[in-house]
Write a structure and sequence with these properties.
The protein is an alpha+beta fold and 347 residues long. The protein has 2 domains: 116 residues; 220 residues, no CATH class. The protein is built from 11 helices and 4 strands. The protein has a 4-stranded antiparallel beta sheet with strand order 2-3-1-4, covered by helices on one side. Strand 2 and strand 3 form a beta hairpin. Helix 10 packs antiparallel against helix 11. The N terminus is likely disordered.
Length: 347
């Protein structure tokens, strides 16, 4: 039997299709119950039932849609009319093992676009944008805390010489943080809604609420700067300035302190269930979310101080969760997942 004769033979046969990477049991439903075996060399073998060439091509097209790199196709058994069933399990030396010429073309058509998809696929771009936006929230929010510290720590800032330029730049960075926070939710929503649209909407709402509260805090600090510049050294402005700073302190508690705990639970659940990133990353969010919420609520009711060991330990898992999520998405993108079926084609 040669490759040309096999290409034209529609006799049902059995195949082993080897793809790159390990697929867990969730993928079985996408291959209509075909057998999936993870090999030690980092590949997965999909064993078909007795199929003809048309069914095999359908399977290859599904692999192409899922952007799973195809490595090899091996014929493991043949059943012809009138042939005893025992002959379907011939010794390896007698069983044809090959990649038909036509299937080699499909293999190339599958692998080559997949390599391009890694660079050009819209889903990869989505992951990169979301990851970069997460990293921008760190780059903007951390320096902002130090830049606005003069107005936060000096009760008489409004009547003193002031460091207005520094404070204004810190407020600008807080605005960048707010916009980036919304951007992360907007970028991820089209993907994670396929896992659970209700929870995905909750995540978007939480990030928008966080951004809105941050903006309120920024406006209150800018108001202090404006009053200092226009009011001179009027002592009557001191209580007004302290009140505006108190507004900002509460926005920090209700926004950047409280909402990341909620977002960690919502997005952590979506990422953990979908497998878009390694599960250890969203696990940090699922653990850190309740810890941060408990710390924040205790601060709100006067049980805990904003700067304490408890607050620091409760914040650490969420900090690592968001940082590792941003780095992974920006550098690696999403892992193959059933919820991304149909989104991995070129635009």
């Amino acid at each position: 039997m040669n490759a040309r004769s096999v290409d034209r033979d529609d006799t049902p046969v059995e195949y082993e299709v080897r793809v790159k990477g390990h697929l867990d049991s969730r993928w079985a439903a996408w291959f209509e119950g075909l057998s999936l075996t993870n090999e030690h060399d980092g590949t997965t073998v999909i064993r078909t039932r007795t199929v003809d060439q048309a069914a095999l091509h359908g399977l290859l097209q599904k692999l192409r849609d899922l952007a799973l790199p195809l490595l090899a196709i091996t014929q493991t058994g043949t059943t012809k009319p009138g042939q005893p069933a025992s002959n379907t399990n011939q010794p390896a030396s007698n069983t044809p093992t090959f990649i038909p010429k036509e299937d080699q073309t499909m293999k190339t058509a599958t692998q080559t676009p997949t390599t391009d998809h890694v660079r050009m696929d819209p889903l990869r771009k989505t992951a990169m944008v979301a990851g970069i936006l997460y990293l921008i929230t760190f780059v903007s929010s951390i320096p902002a805390l130090f830049l606005i510290s003069p107005v936060l720590n000096d009760p008489h800032y409004i009547t003193g010489p002031g460091a207005d330029s520094t404070v204004i730049f810190g407020c600008f960075l807080d605005l960048v943080n707010a916009v980036s926070a919304v951007g992360t939710a907007v970028a991820l929503f089209p993907v994670v809604k396929r896992q659970n649209e209700g929870i995905a909407l909750g995540f978007v709402t939480a990030r928008m609420f966080e951004a809105a509260v941050i903006v309120i805090g920024v406006v209150s600090l800018l108001a202090v700067v404006t009053l200092r510049q226009n009011g001179g050294a009027d002592p009557a402005l001191v209580p007004v300035g302290q009140a505006l700073v108190a507004v900002r302190d509460w926005t920090f508690i209700l926004g950047p302190s409280l909402v990341p705990g909620v977002s960690g639970l919502l997005l952590g659940y979506l990422m953990y269930r979908s497998g878009l990133v390694p599960r250890v990353i969203p696990l940090l969010g699922l653990i850190g979310g309740p810890l941060l919420l408990s710390s924040t609520f205790s601060t709100m009711f006067g049980i805990n101080q904003g700067l304490s060991v408890w607050s620091g330990l409760a914040t650490l898992p969420i900090f690592v969760w968001e940082l590792s999520l941003g780095v992974w998405m920006a550098v690696k993108g999403f892992k193959p997942s059933p919820i991304t079926t149909g989104q991995m084609r070129t635009a």
